[in-house]
Amino acid sequence: MLFLLLALYYARHFYASKPFSSELHPTYSPRQEPIQLITNYRSTANIIWTCLTTIFACTWISVHPNVTGFRSNRWRRLRARLSLFAWALVSPELVLMWAYRQWLGARNIAATIGHGWGPVQGHFLQMGGIVFLFKGEYRCLDPSKILELWPPDPYEHQRRTGRLRPLVLTDEQRRRPLPYSAARSILEHDPVTDDEIQDRSKGDELAKVFVIVQTTWFVVQCIARGVQRLTVTELEIVTLAYAAMNAVMYFFWWDKPLSVQCPVVIPIPFEEYHDDPKELDEDGFMRLLFPAYQRSRDTGRRFESDEPPRRSTLSTIVGFPRRAISSLFSQITEMSDSGLINDRVASVPTYYAYPTSPAMLTNILILIPLLASLFGAIHCIAWSFTFPSLIARTLWRVSSLYIAISPLLFVIAPSIGLLNSWVSGAWNAPNVDSKLKMMHYLRFLALFSVILYIPARIVLVGVSFWGLYDIPPTGHQTVEWMSFIPHI
User: Fold this and answer.
1) Phi, psi of 324 (to 5 degrees)
2) Reading across the β-sheet that carries 137-139, which strands appear in turn?
3) Range 417-425 contact pairs with CB under 8 angstroms and sequence separation of 24 or more
4) Rounded CA gap, 57 and 211, in Å?
5) pLDDT reported for residue 241
C-alpha cells in the first residue's frame, strides 16, 4: 500500500512538471467566455409527458361511469371503463352530452322526490346505485316507473301533438303497481344519505380539485406561451381542446359519485304492500298504452333444433363491419336519449340517464353540437403553425375544419323542427309528414357524418405526434414567468 501511494505521488509531480504539448491536442484552446447554463429548456419527452398526463386526466379520471351491476366481476367493470375511455378519447362531445343529460336527470329526480334528496342522490339513483330485492330477485328498477305518473308514456309528446290518440285510463289503471309503488315509498321516507354514497365513491373533492388544477395549469401555460411568442406544438393544441371539454364535463358530473362498484341493496317487503296492484308483464304494459296491441304469434319462435343459427367464418368476417357500425350507432343513440329500460336485471345501461322532456331534449341536441363545434374550432388555432411538410399541414387543416363544422349538422334537424312548429303553430299541420321526413333525412346525414368524424380525430392525433420531429427552437423554451410580474 505504501509503495502504491509513493508511485502515485511521484507520477503526479512528473506530469505536473512536464510542459503541455499542444501537438497532442491541436484543436484544443482554453475557453475564455463563461459557461452559460440554459435553465428555460424543455425536452420533447417533457412535452409528450405533460400532454399525455393531461389527456389521461381528462379522459380516464374525469369520466364518471354508471354502476356496472350488482356483483359484477372485475373484467366486466374494466371493459365498461375502457369503452368509456375510448369514447372520451375519440369523441368527447358525446360523453359531454351524456354528462349534461345526467346533470338534468339528477336534478329532476331530486325535485320529484323532494325532502332529503339532492343532486348526489339523484345521480346515485340514475347511475344504478340502488338495487331493490323483490321476491328473491335483485332488480335495478326503472326510475321513470318509480317517479313519473303511472303509466310512464314514452309517446306522450306524440299524443299531445295529435299524432297518436289520447291515453284514456281508469283510476285503477293509473295506480302504481308493485314493486314501483313500494320503491317510491321507501325512497321518500328513507333516502340514501350522502355518507353512504361517499363511502362507495372512489373520488372526493380533493381528487377532483387536483384534476382541475392540472388542466387549468396546462391551459395557463398555453396562453402564456402565446403571449411570449413561444411555439406551441400541435400536440398541445389537441390537449388544450381536451382540457376545455373537461372543464364543462366536470361541472356536470361534480355531484356524481365516481367508480361505484357495490350498489346499495334495499329489500322490498311486499307483504306490507299487498293492496297495491300487481306488476304487469311486457305485453300487459304495452296493452295499457295501446289497448289494441297484440303480440305477434311468431315472436320468440326458434328453429326446430332450438339453437341459434350458426354463421360461417366467411359470413362472420363479411358481416363484421356492418355489426360494428350498427353497434357504434346504437351507443351514440343511447348517449343522446334514453327511454324505458329493462328493469328485470340488476344494472342500468352503460350510458343511461333519466329521460328529460322533449323540449329539453331539443335544447340538448342544439347546445351540445355547438359546444362540440367549439371543441373542433380550438384545433383551428394551429391553422398557420409550422408543420413538418405540406401534407401534414393539409391533413391538419382539413381534419380540424371538418370536426368544427360536422357537429353543426346535428343542430339542423331540431332547429328546423322548432322553426316549423313556430311557423305552423302545431305539429298536426297538413304537411307534418313531409317535415318529419325531412328531419329524418337530416338526422341520418348527421349520424353518417360520425363515420368520417372518427378518422378525422385520428388524423389530428397522428399529425400532432408527427410535428414533434421538427420542433423550432422556441418550442423548447419554457415560459419566463418573471416577465408577468411587475418589477423594477
Assistant:
1) -65, -45
2) 137-139, 130-134, 264-267
3) 417/362, 418/362
4) 6
5) 92
pTM for the full predicted model: 0.79
428: phi > 0 → left, psi -120 to 50 → alpha, else beta; which?
alpha
Give yes or no for a contact between 85 and 63, defined as CB atoms under 8 angstroms apart: yes
DSSP symbols for 98-144:
HHHHHHHHHHHHHHHH-TT--HHHHHHHHTT-EEEEETTEEE---HH
Q: What number is the average pLDDT over the span 286-310?
A: 54
CA distance 277 to 31: 96
Q: How many residues does this entry show for the chain?
A: 488
Percent residues over pLDDT 90 in the chain: 16
Position 460 scores a pLDDT of 93
Tell the burial category of 371 from Cβ atoms under 10 Å away from its Cβ (0-12, 13-18, 19+): middle
CA gap 35, 197 in Å, rounded: 60
Count H helices and E strands in the chain, helices first: 17, 3
Cβ proximity of 472 and 231 under 8 Å: yes
Mean pLDDT in residue range 204-233:
86
C-alpha cell at 264: 346499495
Helices (DSSP H) in 406-431: which residue ranges? 409-424
